[in-house]
TrEMBL record:
Keywords: DNA-binding, Phosphoprotein. This is Response regulator. The keyword tRNA processing does not apply. SMART domains: HTH_LUXR (SM00421), REC (SM00448). The modification 4-aspartylphosphate is found at D70. The keyword NADP does not apply. InterPro entries: CheY-like_superfamily, EvgA-like, NreC/VraR/RcsB-like_REC, Sig_transdc_resp-reg_C-effctor, Sig_transdc_resp-reg_receiver, Tscrpt_reg_LuxR_C, WH-like_DNA-bd_sf. PROSITE patterns: HTH_LUXR_2, RESPONSE_REGULATORY. Residues 18-135 form the Response regulatory domain. Residues 146-209 form the HTH luxR-type domain. It comes from the Bacteria. PANTHER family: HTH-TYPE TRANSCRIPTIONAL REGULATOR YHJB-RELATED.
């Protein structure tokens, strides 16, 4: 049976967003979920204490999904959690919600592919504004975009940073990604420049901090 055409002037409704809250503090997760429901009572919400749980949840479907990710989890610390999610699903929308909200952390998260950064110290009005922007598919960063934010990593560069964090050497990264070792070294040069580091050890420290 053929579907009835939509009336003129009435576009197809956008699929409802699914929000994954990844934080090991239950009270904060509940407060964040309550704010999400105030904005949209019908929003689909799932809560997780670890990065591994969240990665299993998004393994089958990343469409219309927003992950609100803490930077300090039992199985992940620092920007590594973001890098792992983006390596698994490059198009996944991930926003950081963290008490570690210094400028350098915000800039690094933006460079590594985060869709936004929300401080846990944000008031209700700021939190609601940030969530509404993210639900609309927009980004949210403070300081504002264009005010000294770092140039984002390319998908290949983000994969290389994630591989470095896993302890792989250049030769192993080249094999895994199907690149030459010289190309990996070229990408690392660009990564160092974008993230403001000079050595592989500093890059590892940045990913783990």
């Amino acid at each position: 049976m053929q579907d009835d055409p939509l009336p003129l002037g009435e576009p197809a409704s956008k699929p409802r967003l699914r929000v994954l809250l990844v934080d090991d503090h239950p009270l904060f997760r509940q407060a964040l979920a309550a704010t999400v429901r105030q904005i949209d009572p019908q929003m689909a919400i799932a809560q997780f204490e670890t990065l591994a749980e969240a990665r299993r949840a998004i393994a089958a479907d990343t469409q219309d999904t927003l992950v609100l990710l803490d930077l300090k989890l039992p199985d992940s610390h620092g920007i590594a959690g973001l890098l792992g999610l983006k390596a698994q699903a490059p198009d996944l929308m991930v926003a950081i919600v963290s008490a570690t909200d210094d400028r350098d952390t915000v800039l690094t998260a933006q460079a590594c592919g985060a869709a936004g950064f929300i401080s846990k110290a944000a008031g209700v009005e700021e939190l609601s504004a940030a969530l509404e922007s993210l639900f609309a598919g927009e980004t949210w960063f403070l300081p504002p975009e264009g005010d000294g934010l770092r140039e984002p990593l390319t998908p290949a560069q983000a994969r290389i940073v994630e591989a470095v964090h896993r302890g792989l050497m250049n030769k192993q990264i080249a094999y895994e990604m199907g690149l030459s070792e010289a190309t990996v070294k070229y990408h690392l040069t660009g990564i160092f420049r974008k993230l403001g580091v000079q050595t592989r050890a500093q890059l590892l420290a940045l990913a783990r901090d």
